[in-house]
Amino acid sequence: MSRNALKMVTIGGGSSYTPELIEGYIKRQDQLPIKEIWLVDIPEGEKKLNIVGNMAKRMVKAAGLDWEVHLTLDRREALKDADFVSTQFRVGLLEARVKDERIPGSYGLLGQETNGAGGIFKAFRTVPVILDIVKDMKDLCPNAWLINFTNPSGMITEAIQQYGKWDKVIGLCNVPVMAMMNEPATIGKELKDLTYKFAGIDHFHWHRVWDNSGKEVTMDIINKMYDGSETGLPKNIFDVKFFREQLNQMKMIPCGYHRYYYRQTEMLNHSLEEFNQNKTRAQEVMRIEHELFTLYQDSNLDHKPKQLAERGGAHYSDAACEAIASIYGDKKTHMVVSTLNHGALPDLPSDHTVEVSSIITASGALPLTFGHFQPAESGWIQLMKNMELVIDQAAVTGDYGLALQAFIMNPLIPSGQAAKDLLDEMLVANKKYLPQFADKIKELEDQ
Amino acid sequence: MSRNALKMVTIGGGSSYTPELIEGYIKRQDQLPIKEIWLVDIPEGEKKLNIVGNMAKRMVKAAGLDWEVHLTLDRREALKDADFVSTQFRVGLLEARVKDERIPGSYGLLGQETNGAGGIFKAFRTVPVILDIVKDMKDLCPNAWLINFTNPSGMITEAIQQYGKWDKVIGLCNVPVMAMMNEPATIGKELKDLTYKFAGIDHFHWHRVWDNSGKEVTMDIINKMYDGSETGLPKNIFDVKFFREQLNQMKMIPCGYHRYYYRQTEMLNHSLEEFNQNKTRAQEVMRIEHELFTLYQDSNLDHKPKQLAERGGAHYSDAACEAIASIYGDKKTHMVVSTLNHGALPDLPSDHTVEVSSIITASGALPLTFGHFQPAESGWIQLMKNMELVIDQAAVTGDYGLALQAFIMNPLIPSGQAAKDLLDEMLVANKKYLPQFADKIKELEDQ
Amino acid sequence: MSRNALKMVTIGGGSSYTPELIEGYIKRQDQLPIKEIWLVDIPEGEKKLNIVGNMAKRMVKAAGLDWEVHLTLDRREALKDADFVSTQFRVGLLEARVKDERIPGSYGLLGQETNGAGGIFKAFRTVPVILDIVKDMKDLCPNAWLINFTNPSGMITEAIQQYGKWDKVIGLCNVPVMAMMNEPATIGKELKDLTYKFAGIDHFHWHRVWDNSGKEVTMDIINKMYDGSETGLPKNIFDVKFFREQLNQMKMIPCGYHRYYYRQTEMLNHSLEEFNQNKTRAQEVMRIEHELFTLYQDSNLDHKPKQLAERGGAHYSDAACEAIASIYGDKKTHMVVSTLNHGALPDLPSDHTVEVSSIITASGALPLTFGHFQPAESGWIQLMKNMELVIDQAAVTGDYGLALQAFIMNPLIPSGQAAKDLLDEMLVANKKYLPQFADKIKELEDQ
Amino acid sequence: MSRNALKMVTIGGGSSYTPELIEGYIKRQDQLPIKEIWLVDIPEGEKKLNIVGNMAKRMVKAAGLDWEVHLTLDRREALKDADFVSTQFRVGLLEARVKDERIPGSYGLLGQETNGAGGIFKAFRTVPVILDIVKDMKDLCPNAWLINFTNPSGMITEAIQQYGKWDKVIGLCNVPVMAMMNEPATIGKELKDLTYKFAGIDHFHWHRVWDNSGKEVTMDIINKMYDGSETGLPKNIFDVKFFREQLNQMKMIPCGYHRYYYRQTEMLNHSLEEFNQNKTRAQEVMRIEHELFTLYQDSNLDHKPKQLAERGGAHYSDAACEAIASIYGDKKTHMVVSTLNHGALPDLPSDHTVEVSSIITASGALPLTFGHFQPAESGWIQLMKNMELVIDQAAVTGDYGLALQAFIMNPLIPSGQAAKDLLDEMLVANKKYLPQFADKIKELEDQ
Ligand SMILES: [Mn+2]
Ligand SMILES: [Mn+2]
Ligand SMILES: [Mn+2]
Ligand SMILES: [Mn+2]
């Protein structure tokens, strides 16, 4: 690492989230001796890249910093000698998200981009691209750290490690961040006075909490979930309460996404309602994005607008900055990240990615052990983790049988002919981004 | 064991399957020096016990054997000094099965007595009774073997071992038996020339097959499943084909019950069709039973009528006789039984029950190792086995939160308010047989 | 916990180490609102208790603190409502250590009190006493934390958790402390700029180190071990170099005690040399102790004398104070402690004690995952951990067969008749402290 | 496989054991349609090959069989289209064994060719050769089965699977065979009426036994070990009794080689006694071999002479024939073989070789599960298995650090400078057969 002149690269730099990232860097200017920030995007994103890139330049200037902000479509130029690479791209742009939400919806199934059929296809599209980035990194910046927050973050991180053979990676999500931002207040505490232990996989984890007298306060927080307190659900998740009797037995706090699995019917109904009213999340996001980019075009705007907080991914970028600062500064901060299990969750294989409370050091994430789950949670997590493995393997090989196995395993897709038809329709609809499935797609088109 | 004068006890002796059991004993008269057969039932089953018991006496007599056949309502009298105890009772009789099938059906869910909500409740009703029997056995026949084929056979066997602390038990099912009876012919082979390796849990296992030249013939059998060959599906399971691409990837043969999980939609639709036509399996079974008991009443009938083969449980009793003969004679036969894992399936904990190819010796079942599953099957089996553990724990403790967790985990019950309502309705409807849930049921009734 | 008026209890308060403990408390007076310090000992230790206890009072007074220092022979009075209990007693006093060193020596074997035959007997004597203390704690101070530094610290901690069923325990050792005190300077670093990861069991662990740029510096430290740098070997261990080729392959730093296993012959020879010159460690310690207590008797002495640093256990008590302050203050300090594995070392069972880098919080130690060992270290640690389990089980049950198994497993005791004779001689010699082996000892005496 | 005209190949065909192998084939002539037997050896063994090869021809002829017996020095010619390949070669001939026994002896250490330093060097010499054979087999007879009884049989089998990536292999040893031949009579039983369960690794396993009423008779057999009954110790192992108290605790029967570990001192003393009298086993074997080859030269001799039974490896070849017949005939015989664990011993990794009771089918060995060991045996076996892995890795890579780690781990080699000197001396002494260590050996020679 060029320790006194850091080169930071963001793939998908034209994202509307970039101002949060820039703000995150600016907040940590004392911790991070940045020299260059490279925002990379693809030709289809050039216009947005320029808008948000100029906004970034104004933000840096307003902060009185001499950091260079480079905008480029040349990924390899950007990656050359990079110190930290963060990824926030979306293969196929929001149009792909529309498909992830609307095609399942047309089958009466959940349309969501990290769970169900949509999540599987987001992985199928993204894995080949991330592996390509890793290939470039091996060539151009073999000592850099990769901070991934492209979704589905857990599966992408798994692919980077298992198939990309790249260990210097940390996967991020804003869900634990938001829980830790909102929950302490519900029990009259501050985060610094609590010990959080998260365990699971991305978008499917639980946590327990202790106060600074050693008392477990998990059930106190759970109780607050039923009196209307804000406990940190991301904006993109419909709020239906968990069954209290279930949490009383579990004695852990599920993540927001568990709603899809623990209240499947209600979440599906809500999704279909939106589908029928033509107002899926992708469309809502398009509206917000339009509004954001209109703002970003204002050459007087030189700070992150508050509207950005409405996006489901708020705090992702800030988490990325914190991870980067922790690695660079060997801060030993507690963060919840996707990293190799190494025994932290003995119910899962030690050589695969989990999302778990970790200490972030200069040599990466050191997970804290969590110990065994009770049988119900053990069964769920073993299913879900193995499903991730099947999805990644399908994404890498383009094996149709594996893709079908993933659809059949997925708890949010009732198996059967309709599920297979959905798989086939989505393959064809995503043709442009699924080179690995080209033969099968051709076969489907020829029918 | 009284090695030259065996006392065989069957709990649920009034079952229509008893003639198959008696026939099984008669076939093995050279292997089993039986002195007494005790058929035990409860007062509600007395009439059937007498009918089928007399039929059993005629069968024994017709075979020229001097075995004593005792009919009794006094379980403890029967268990005293027993050598082998087999269980084929149904708590709540067929009326309970009607509820297992019709209440879920009324919620638009699968009505089936070993899978979905019905299977869970069959376990809830049966576990307390079987633990009571084990308690009696510890007292009255501590050296006896317990051969369980009461469903859900795997969970009952698990409860006997984990909660009853009774190791001399073997759990049986006819599904592997029927596969091994029917599949060899489809590839022009005989069973004796093949090596079968089954692995999984009861009603959720897979198998692989090799011929006597060492060549794996699993895919050959799979291919035959698509040309109309009879591969041994029990009578009670609707036949919808597995997706060929799935099996090509899996390279194992799923059991018949996998249809509920791999073709969930089609199986549900078929179940609901029957539900809407008022012709669920329980009713079909009642019809067959009526027909069978009419036959059994014929004082000239002294052999098993062919109509018995129409019941889904055909070959169960014969498997029980074979297990008994193998234990008694230390025959080292290959059988597929529910027994302690002990490492045979390294993806599952070694101290819990699995259903696996085993060698049956005088000291019980010695499982053959199977090795690791691929991720898809590993995920499924870990979910399902853990669900069994949750169900058994709920059945023993009467903990409502655990019961709810089981409903939410079950892949055949979409989670949500309706699932909880279904749970509550079934608790109340099964009140008579669920003393462990008495408090919760009272609370539900009081609402 | 009485959060503003802590009651600290030390069993074995008459130890010569007590001034270090008191100094440790005084150093942390801002972190620990101590009200009472209770020093407990047995009648045989009363004289020392009074000497060192009065010294402690002077130290507290000199520090200008109003803490009450109580000296007592009544353990139950002391334990009543305690907040923290630390243990530094030695069952059988130094006389027992003499036997641990001299009886094996007379067989030509290593005489050492935490390894070989001596270590086994120290466990045999100590386990019953510590379990008795735990029993009192359950009764008198069920919310207290137990900080154990009585040796063999790992086995004692294991016994407290497995047999005492007491979870609020942390086991300590000064070996990791001294490594972290001395090694950084050898590579021109400070501890705060390094990340240490220790893994293993007490007196048999390894560690790896990274600097604050993420670079692993383990090999740099190893290289310094061969140029004469002081890397922190406790005073009681004879210094013979590890084979460099071995460490090059291992790429981890062994603990000082590994010398007994990696350079068995040289360590044995040195031990026997001392044995033959009648100068075993116990005798050396007696000399130091005598000197120390002479000093302590000086009513003008009110601070820890520098001579205490010559004892092998230096820094133990300070580590105990730091653990206490970390728990009390939820400091999330990194410490290396004996605690439940929980997956940190996936090569060892998750429900047993290991010594591992942990974050110390108000709810106890949270181990950092270490991941799998290479085969050589994996084999060693599995042998040693299982030996600990055998020893603890023998210590609890008094089973002679288990004691013999422990002797036979122990890599420092060549198995055979002499080993058995040694076992028998040590049983008889320790008769007074081994009630659990009473029957066997009687049998041996009767021969 | 050429199912009706088998080609059998034996590498090391000039061995004095060959007549036992030929006799084994002849005994199984009805089970094995042999067409050709190829005996292969190296030029140094040509003379013996001719003697024993002609003896083999006479044996076949005397049995009235038309099998072709080919003698060749061309391994590739022999391997072409082979069906079964068995290996009984000794790299470096008996001269190497002399070194394995005498060099350690000169250091006051055990001289034995499968345990201690000798066993490690036998592995170092043999692994490269067996991997070369496997390479030829991939090329010339990719469907053949490899039946290995070259020692150290377990490590060689492990190397074949792990490094040779060859799965169609079975490793054999005569120790379990002899136990099963001799033990039943001691308790008045026949083998066919007992169930044996062996578990461990080659030359380090235990077993338990049940009779045909299901009663465990392990302790009955153990009791007989103390009244002078012959329980099957191979001829090459000095007989010193196990400690009865140890076996009483263990409740398993150790294998003969456990003496080296459980009675280390006595075995070492006996070995040194022989060493000092210049009568190590290699020399004894040379004497027997000389006698045997003198017999074999007798052109009238056409059956296996009884003197062959005096060799330690008696029954190895017969076991090989039985394994071959079981594979060919899909006999599902119970045999104790080295094969992949697959969960049979859950204390060891599932993807490494263990020696375990298995059912031998046409598709190979199916291990029977054994379940967890108690802690003492668990610790031992984990040490020993990991030592095997270290030895194999050293044998493949020629890494001196790994070789040193193996020496240090080995319970029969006290670690220290002398152990390192021994390692170095043995490397140089075995130079001719250790190409993988060439650099290190040169370095040693240059010193
Ligand atoms: Mn996320
Ligand atoms: Mn069944
Ligand atoms: Mn220590
Ligand atoms: Mn052998």
Distance between the termini of chain A: 53 Å
The low-confidence runs of chain A, each spanning 5 or more residues with pLDDT under 50, are none
**What is the H-and-E element order of chain A?**
EHEHEHEHHEHEHEEHHEHHHHEEEHHHH
Strand order of the largest sheet of chain A: 3-2-1-4-5-6
**Average pLDDT taken over every residue of chain A:** 94
How many strands in all of chain A? 12
Question: How would you describe this protein?
Answer:
The structure is a homotetramer of 447-residue chains. Chain A has 447 residues and is of the alpha/beta class. The first copy, chain A, has a domain at 6-171: NAD(P)-binding Rossmann-like Domain (Rossmann fold, 3-Layer(aba) Sandwich). Helix content of chain A is 47%, strand content 15%. The first copy, chain A, has 17 helices and twelve strands. The first copy, chain A, has helices at 18-27, 46-62, 75-79, 93-106, 116-140, 153-162, 174-186, 218-225, 244-250, 259-262, 264-276, 281-296, 316-329, 375-397, 400-409, 417-429, 438-446; strands spanning 6-11, 34-40, 68-72, 84-87, 145-148, 169-171, 194-201, 204-211, 253-254, 333-340, 353-361, 364-367. In chain A, the strands form two sheets. In chain A, strands 3-2-1-4-5-6 form a six-stranded parallel sheet, sandwiched between helices. In chain A, strands 7, 8, 9, 10, 11 and 12 form a six-stranded antiparallel sheet that branches. In chain A, helix 5 crosses helix 14 (375-397). Chain A is globular and about 55 Å long. The model of chain A has no long low-confidence stretch (mean pLDDT 94). Chains in contact: A-B, A-C, B-D, C-D. One manganese (II) ion (MN) is lined by residues 151, 153, 173-175, 203 of chain A.
